[in-house]
């Protein structure tokens, strides 16, 4: 093996029922993968089985044995999603059978790159018959990934060809490229069971990244978190497991009943459960019928099977042998990543009809048949990594997206993702803020334009108001995320486009301009409150004496409030700011002389009634001038 070859590969069996897959695995490894009592009783494989070969040079060949019966293809699909090599098993005395073809089609749809063909039960046939079967098999696999694969006669009973088969597996393993570890870990669960004294154990092929003992993980889509108590790989306890390994995980704190095949183990917050996914749909040439839009199908990804509706994006139906973009509306949450291959089986009769590649696992809600969605998916399918990443950020919209969330939506690992983001930022194609938050310039520009338009309309409708409430503006701007909105206002302020004063936002160019008559009314109001000192009128009274009707919400009254000349002390009770300063000075002087006062003292001091005295005392408490002790007030220290 070369230095770049993996130290372990996963081989999946495939083939028709009773063609000897399990017997062959046992002859190769010594392990009987039929573990269920029902399998022993019936003599057929029902569920997945696992075995391994330890080869010289540290190579481990892990074998997933799948059922061949047509009723258990769903179990077969759960086992082949994470394999590197396929071992198509065909009995020499029977030749190619229906499940041979379906399993081959499934492996082809999953884009398994290489494998071999084992002609089992070779001891039961004559050599000339074996050659006829070999020729037939070569014709069946022509044009598939097994076209140039070795076809090896073997016998589990006599041991014929087992050495050659093992050598061929070892040779193929050397050509399997190692899986990259620049990904967040992901392990689709194919088995869940309990080990006495240890608790819940899950197994699967670690498709990406690495896991280690004591890691905190999340089981998706359930949202259940747990700690890894221990790990095993090919039967041995290990400190860590890496992409490509068959892995058993002992999860601390989770019950067996809380988990199931199809769930996915990953780091918390790094995967995106979704009930809507987009991708390509390729119909097999020998599919029994076209797939019409809204057809109900069985959707297989990883180890999961979920019912779904196939929504074709640019046509009413897809003919056998054709490929199109499709959206799948799932009946339960799916946990997958862009680039994952999937298989589609018809609802009834249950046969494999096609498959494809996921392009978007959290897609934008475009109008389904609109050209924008097809254009979006075309970019994801054929674009450069920079184009793909920019497209995902573009369609997150004005909310922007955090790095960890983005990582679950794109087909790049953390290191590659950061490098691509840096390149896009340098080119001005992505904007970053609040550390790891990203937004597309087009989305930011639309939000910017919306905010400026809303402020312009507000000033036009309410020219006497100094600005719009920050929260009202955020709501009118599509309820933009608070962090995005805050960043936008800071940017607009830096470019002198807007001004923010406490919770009010205005265009920098906006000024409150009063007509001569409006200025007269405002002057009368201000003079009225200034003269009244500690016993001011109500807003209605003051406005009436100025010749207008209304209350404190009147726009001219609010001009004084918003400018700070009038101060709300309580409910509808307003004082002139200068009057409050004078009252405070008198109050402080009295307290320095007497040390403490009560309501009657301030009434006498200012010549006012209890109606004004109590609110004033409470106001100065809030302003931290005074402190209440029982019914008395003292001067607050400092």
Report on this model:
This protein is of the alpha+beta class and 638 residues long. It folds into 6 domains: 8-175, Rossmann fold (3-Layer(aba) Sandwich), CATH 3.40.50.300; 186-266, Elongation Factor Tu (Ef-tu), domain 3, CATH 2.40.30; 273-374, Translation factors (Elongation Factor Tu (Ef-tu), domain 3), CATH 2.40.30; 383-439, Arc Repressor Mutant, subunit A, CATH 1.10.10; 443-507, Arc Repressor Mutant, subunit A, CATH 1.10.10.10; 514-638, Winged helix-like DNA-binding domain superfamily/Winged helix DNA-binding domain (Arc Repressor Mutant, subunit A, Orthogonal Bundle), CATH 1.10.10. 34% of the residues lie in helices and 28% in strands. The protein has 19 helices and 35 strands. The strands form 9 sheets. Strands 7, 8, 9, 11, 12, 13, 15 and 16 form an 8-stranded antiparallel sheet that branches. It has a 6-stranded mixed sheet with strand order 2-3-1-4-5-6, with helices on both faces. Strands 17-22-20-19-23-24 form a 6-stranded antiparallel β-barrel. Helix 14 packs across helix 16 (555-562) and helix 18 packs across helix 19. The chain is elongated and about 125 Å long.
């Amino acid at each position: 093996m070369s230095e770049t070859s993996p130290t372990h590969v996963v081989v999946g069996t495939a083939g028709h029922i009773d063609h000897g897959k399990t017997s062959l695995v046992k002859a190769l490894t010594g392990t009987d993968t039929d573990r269920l009592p029902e399998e022993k009783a019936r003599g057929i494989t029902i569920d997945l089985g696992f075995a391994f070969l330890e080869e010289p040079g540290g190579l481990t060949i892990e074998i997933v044995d799948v059922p061949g019966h047509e009723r258990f293809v769903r179990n077969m699909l759960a086992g082949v999603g994470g394999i590197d090599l396929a071992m198509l098993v065909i009995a020499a005395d029977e030749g190619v059978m229906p499940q041979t073809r379906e399993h081959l089609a499934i492996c082809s749809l999953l884009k398994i790159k290489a494998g071999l063909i084992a002609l089992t039960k070779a001891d039961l046939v004559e050599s000339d018959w074996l050659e006829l079967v070999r020729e037939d098999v070569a014709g069946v696999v022509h044009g598939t990934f097994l076209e140039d694969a070795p076809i090896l006669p073997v016998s589990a009973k006599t041991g014929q060809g087992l050495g050659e088969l093992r050598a061929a597996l070892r040779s193929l393993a050397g050509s399997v490229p190692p899986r990259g570890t620049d990904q967040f870990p992901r392990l689709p669960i194919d088995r869940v069971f309990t080990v006495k004294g240890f608790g819940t154990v899950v197994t699967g092929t670690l498709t990406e990244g690495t896991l280690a003992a004591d890691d905190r993980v999340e089981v998706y889509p359930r949202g259940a978190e747990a700690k890894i108590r221990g790990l095993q790989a090919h039967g041995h306890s290990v400190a860590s497991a890496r992409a490509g390994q068959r892995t058993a995980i002992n999860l601390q704190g989770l019950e067996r009943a809380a988990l199931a095949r199809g769930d996915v183990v990953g780091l918390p917050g790094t995967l995106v459960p979704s009930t809507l996914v987009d991708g390509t749909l390729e119909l097999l040439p020998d599919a029994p019928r076209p797939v019409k839009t809204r057809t109900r199908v069985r959707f297989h990804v990883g180890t999961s099977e979920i019912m779904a509706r196939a929504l074709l994006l640019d046509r009413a139906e897809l003919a056998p042998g054709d490929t199109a973009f499709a959206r799948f509306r799932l009946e339960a949450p799916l946990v997958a990543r862009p680039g994952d291959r999937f298989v589609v089986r018809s609802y009834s009769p249950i046969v494999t009809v096609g498959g494809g590649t996921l392009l978007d696992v959290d897609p934008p809600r475009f109008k389904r048949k609109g050209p924008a969605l097809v254009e979006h998916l075309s970019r994801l399918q054929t674009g450069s990594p920079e184009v793909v990443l920019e497209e995902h950020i573009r369609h997150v919209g004005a909310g922007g997206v955090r790095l960890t969330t983005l990582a679950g939506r794109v087909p790049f690992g953390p290191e590659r993702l950061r490098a691509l983001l840096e390149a896009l930022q340098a080119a001005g194609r992505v904007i970053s803020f609040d550390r790891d938050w990203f937004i597309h310039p087009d989305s930011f520009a639309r939000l910017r334009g919306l905010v400026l338009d809303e402020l312009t309309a507000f000033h036009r409708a309410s020219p006497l108001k100094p600005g719009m409430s920050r929260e009202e503006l955020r709501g009118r701007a599509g309820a933009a995320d608070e962090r995005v909105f805050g960043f936008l206002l800071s940017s607009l302020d830096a470019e002198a486009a807007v001004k923010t004063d406490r919770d009010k936002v205005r265009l920098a160019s906006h000024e409150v301009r009063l007509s001569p008559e409006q200025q007269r009314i405002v002057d009368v109001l201000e003079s009225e409150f200034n003269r009244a000192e500690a016993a001011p009128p109500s807003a209605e009274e003051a406005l009436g004496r100025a010749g207008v009707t209304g209350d404190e919400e009147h726009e001219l009254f609010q001009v004084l409030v918003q400018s700070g000349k009038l101060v709300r002390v309580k409910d509808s009770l307003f004082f002139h700011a200068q009057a409050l300063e004078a009252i405070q000075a008198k109050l402080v002087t009295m307290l320095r002389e007497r040390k403490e006062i009560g309501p009657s003292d301030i009434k006498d001091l200012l010549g006012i009634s209890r109606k004004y005295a109590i609110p004033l005392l409470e106001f100065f408490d809030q302003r931290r001038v005074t402190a209440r002790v029982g019914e008395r007030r003292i001067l607050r220290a400092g």
